From TrEMBL, chain A:
<keyword id="KW-0408">Iron</keyword>
<keyword id="KW-0472">Membrane</keyword>
<feature type="binding site" description="axial binding residue">
    <location>
        <position position="411"/>
    </location>
    <ligand>
        <name>heme b 1; low-spin</name>
    </ligand>
</feature>
<dbReference type="GO" id="GO:0022904">
    <property type="term" value="P:respiratory electron transport chain"/>
</dbReference>
<feature type="transmembrane region" description="Helical">
    <location>
        <begin position="373"/>
        <end position="394"/>
    </location>
</feature>
<feature type="transmembrane region" description="Helical">
    <location>
        <begin position="414"/>
        <end position="434"/>
    </location>
</feature>
<dbReference type="InterPro" id="IPR023615">
    <property type="entry name" value="Cyt_c_Oxase_su1_BS"/>
</dbReference>
<dbReference type="InterPro" id="IPR000883">
    <property type="entry name" value="Cyt_C_Oxase_1"/>
</dbReference>
<feature type="transmembrane region" description="Helical">
    <location>
        <begin position="190"/>
        <end position="212"/>
    </location>
</feature>
From TrEMBL, chain B:
<feature type="domain" description="Cytochrome c">
    <location>
        <begin position="207"/>
        <end position="288"/>
    </location>
</feature>
<feature type="transmembrane region" description="Helical">
    <location>
        <begin position="32"/>
        <end position="50"/>
    </location>
</feature>
<dbReference type="InterPro" id="IPR050597">
    <property type="entry name" value="Cytochrome_c_Oxidase_Subunit"/>
</dbReference>
<feature type="binding site" description="covalent">
    <location>
        <position position="123"/>
    </location>
    <ligand>
        <name>heme c 1</name>
    </ligand>
</feature>
<keyword id="KW-0479">Metal-binding</keyword>
<keyword id="KW-0349">Heme</keyword>
<dbReference type="GO" id="GO:1902600">
    <property type="term" value="P:proton transmembrane transport"/>
</dbReference>
<keyword id="KW-0997">Cell inner membrane</keyword>
<dbReference type="GO" id="GO:0020037">
    <property type="term" value="F:heme binding"/>
</dbReference>
Length: 550, 290
């Protein structure tokens, strides 16, 4: 890895790591006596370990000019492995907290094991750890292929990938320590947020610098989606996290917003995190890997354009549907609801474009579990976007709000769409970049597919039932005009569904473990081959042309 | 590949773009898509016209229907209160009259069950039977009195709570605070156990019980009374009745005498309305502890 960096980049890496180590030290010193010191130490330790790593390879020969004839895939490889590791962590903790809801006493009287601390480890672990790493890894892969241009340099992709994972580590460890700003999906505190801004700006610059050097006349729709994801997430992240730390020696900060403005900002962020992190980014993934794997042209260029602008324009308004029947003024709720209803059309347009692309390749969908992962993902995308628009209608929301129906809806999208499209894309990209004919075991891919499908269905059906029962119990009145059920009655009614949900989630998490194993064995297979390979023929590396589909 | 080439499978024209092998068909957007875009946009437009929708500086478009969700809720709450005549009877009539009215008590049981589940069940259990440290409300034993007025007062001010008129009670830590030595504690525990189980008095622990009686008379009678029947004035439990809050086995009683006890019950005066507390009083008494 270090041998792929030029001497100048190695010096840059050392300089950046030194700066990060000093920042970590500064945080640790300023935050002594505060929990912040732990994170300062963690940042410094990470930087120092990486410095040793860079120094150990510092005098390795520099990469030759021939690198410019190849795409730079090592960061993608690392990103794929990190995504799968985070998948196992995030989904494992998810199933843990699912069981915790069945057995609430399972906290060992330890603060870190309480539901409130473990749940964000699950949500951030799967959204940012698994989803984010998969987006970064695949975006580098797709960007280079569809632009016919190599990444601009060898240092910045590593900065983005490693810097991003440092953010994820600060987030997850912070939750266990009790560091949170209590904003859903934006829990990390000010110093982690600032760090992510730096990482994200570099990420966007990689995109722009590569696109500027593209050798294709047009920018492929996948790249529009990836760019929308990067750009809008930056805006959302910065605005929602505007806060004032109580001091530079404290992990605690106070938001710049208060009351209903705070709620609105948070859900403008929260819903657009769904829109631009969990939808736009993964649509970018889908638009490359699905047609590529199916070997079919995209069904409609025009539907691609209309879908893209429809989704990016209308999602921006939809956040207030999270705050129906609250202190938020009714007119804001109206706008959120009506734009959410209109949003169904561009959402289904994107889903239809993907499914119709499979026309002429349905035999492959039948035979190839990887393509089937992507097909099923698109089906779930269509289902959950329909459900989302439906639930945003105020009358429906009055039943569904605060119930498990919301949880089921989120997981129909997160398991059914986000995770399945990611697994499909990873199973497609891993053999390509490790130069293998296929995954280590296609049977394991098949097993993973059925575990994922069964897990998602069990999960979603359990939560639909549970949510609707909950919603009905909470609004049922006795003839005397008082509530017919206490909250604790509804908890008792939930229990069987919580068990079912934990089992479904367990299926899904086991699938992720199988996926990690399969990816790992494919990599081992690739490196074993390399070790056994006979002497390479004397061919000038520059003459090696890039293969389609690589 | 150039514009005008056809995809053999669909017969559609290709756009001529190609990215690493991915091509695009120039399929027109289906009419049904435009239709549904129109339908949803029309729905949105009509909704905006009828309901509060767009901001106008410091105000907003109110909508032709003039509906305001908060006004609607306010009216519904007033209307619901007006229709709930039975709660007015609860507020006005005395306990005995309500308890005598089977129809009204039916309403109390319905509303009381939910109120109890939402406010009391966390400690006392959904059935009111309590648990270790939390009194059973469905039995005949009452720490602070089992009349409706006494129960209502306990709910209103709580026990050892932050209410200025709270009921206050403490069982001292006789062992830990070195008021009694270990032997004395063991003896008084044996005596206390014999109060609800007189057969023990002639058993093998006869001497310990006798010694314990002396300890009891010197230390415990001020609260629990000379006969151990307790006092609802100071919340001292009756030790002769076989009902136990913290357990009636030897070890539990020992822990109580050694380490003391100070239960806590929150005051509900500011958290529940007068009617709700009255319903809860009636509900609790109806559980069986009359």
């Amino acid at each position: 890895m270090i041998s792929e960096l030029t001497r100048g980049e190695r010096r840059l890496a050392l300089a950046v790591l030194t700066a990060v180590a000093i920042l970590g030290l500064a945080l640790a010193v300023a935050g002594r006596g505060d929990i912040l010191a732990v994170h300062g130490g963690l940042i410094m330790a990470s930087a120092v370990v990486l410095m040793f790593f860079v120094i150990s390879g510092y005098y390795a020969p520099e990469p030759g000019e021939e690198r410019f004839a190849q795409y730079y895939d090592t960061p993608t490889k690392a990103g794929v492995v990190l995504a799968m590791i985070w998948a196992v962590i995030g989904m494992g903790v998810g199933d843990w907290v699912a069981w915790l809801l069945v057995y609430p006493e399972m906290t060992f009287d330890a603060a870190w094991a309480s539901f409130g601390r473990l749940r964000p480890v699950h949500t951030s672990g799967v959204i940012f750890g698994f989803g984010g790493n998969a987006l970064i890894a695949t975006s580098f892969h797709v960007l280079q292929r569809t632009s016919r241009a190599r990444l601009p340099d060898q240092f910045s992709p590593w900065f983005v990938l490693i810097g991003y994972n440092l953010f994820c580590l600060l987030a997850a460890s912070g939750y266990l320590l009790g560091i949170t700003q209590s904003k859903e999906y934006a829990e990390p505190e000010w110093y982690a947020d600032l760090w992510l801004v730096v990482v994200w700006v570099v990420y966007f610059s990689i995109y722009l610098r590569t696109l500027m050097r593209r050798q294709e006349p047009h920018i492929y729709v996948a790249n529009w989606y990836y760019m929308a994801f990067i750009l809008v997430v930056a805006i959302l992240h910065i605005v929602n996290n505007l806060a004032v730390p109580i001091s530079f020696g404290s992990a605690k900060s106070y938001s710049a917003f208060a009351g209903v403005q705070d709620a609105m900002t948070q859900w403008w962020y929260g819903h657009n995190a769904v829109a631009f992190f969990l939808t736009a980014g993964f649509l970018g993934m889908m638009y490359y890997y699905l047609p590529k794997r199916a070997g079919r042209p995209v069904f409609s260029y025009r539907m691609g354009i209309l879908g893209f602008w429809g989704i990016t324009f209308m999602y921006m308004w939809a956040g207030s549907h999270h705050l129906h029947y609250t202190a938020l003024p009714q007119w804001v709720q109206t706008l959120g609801m009506t734009f959410s209803v209109m949003l169904i059309v561009p959402s289904w347009l994107a889903a239809a474009n993907a499914l119709l692309t499979l026309n002429g390749a349905w035999d492959k969908v039948r035979d190839d579990a990887t393509l089937r992962f992507m097909m099923l993902a698109v089906v779930f995308y269509g289902l959950s976007t329909f459900e989302g628009s439906f639930m945003s209608i105020r009358a429906v929301n009055s039943l569904s709000h605060y119930t498990d129906w919301t949880v089921g809806h989120v997981h129909a999208g997160a398991l059914g769409w986000v995770a399945l499209i990611t697994f499909g894309s990873i199973y497609a990209v891993v053999p390509w970049i490790w130069k293998q004919p296929s995954m280590y075991s296609n049977k394991l891919v098949e097993a993973h597919f059925w575990l994922s499908l069964a897990g998602t269905l069990i999960y979603v059906f359990a939560m639909w039932n549970s949510g609707i029962i909950q919603g009905l119990m909470w609004r049922t009145y006795s003839e005397g005009g008082t509530l017919a059920y206490s909250f604790i009655d509804s908890l008792v009614a939930m229990r069987p569904y919580y068990i079912a949900r934990a089992i479904g989630g367990g299926f899904f998490a086991v699938g992720a473990v199988i996926g990690l194993y399969n990816v790992w064995m494919t990599i081992r297979q690739a490196s074993a081959e390399r070790a056994e390979a006979p002497d390479a023929p004397v061919v000038p590396a520059l003459a090696r042309s890039l293969q389609a589909g690589e | 590949m150039s514009v005008g080439d056809y995809d053999p499978y669909t017969g559609q024209r290709l756009t001529g773009h190609e990215w690493n092998g991915i091509k695009e068909l120039n399929t027109p957007v289906p009419k049904v898509v435009w239709f549904f875009l129109g339908v949803t946009a029309l729905f949105a437009f009509v909704y905006w016209v009828l309901m509060p929708a767009w901001p106008l500086g410091v105000t907003y478009t109110k909508g032709l229907l003039g509906l305001d969700e908060r006004e609607i809720v306010r009216e519904k709450v007033v209307e619901a209160a007006r229709q709930r005549t039975w709660t007015q009877r609860i507020a006005q009539e005395d306990y005995a009259a309500i308890q005598a009215d089977a129809e009204l008590m039916q309403k109390v049981r319905q509303a009381g069950r939910t109120l109890f589940g939402d406010n009391c069940a966390v400690c006392h259990g959904t059935s009111g039977k309590g648990g270790p440290g939390y009194p059973n409300l469905a039995d005949k034993a009452w720490l602070w009195g089992g009349t409706p007025e006494a129960v209502a007062e306990t709910i209103r001010v709580g026990i050892n709570s932050d209410h200025p008129q709270t009921r206050t009670s403490q069982m001292l830590a006789f062992g830990r605070d070195q008021m009694l030595d270990r032997t004395a504690v063991l003896n008084v525990v044996a005596y206390v156990q014999s109060l609800s189980n007189p057969a023990l008095a002639n058993g093998p622990e006869k001497d310990a019980i006798t010694a314990g009686k002396a300890v009891f008379e010197a230390n415990c009678v001020s609260c629990h009374g000379p006969d151990g029947k307790g006092s609802t004035e100071v919340g001292a439990p009756d030790l002769t009745d076989g009902f136990w809050i913290y357990g009636g086995d030897r070890q539990s009683i020992f822990d109580t005498v050694w380490g003391g006890r100070q239960g806590y019950m929150p005051a509900w005066e500011k958290r529940l309305s007068d009617v709700d507390r009255k319903i809860l009083t009636l509900y609790v008494l109806d559980l069986g502890g009359k």
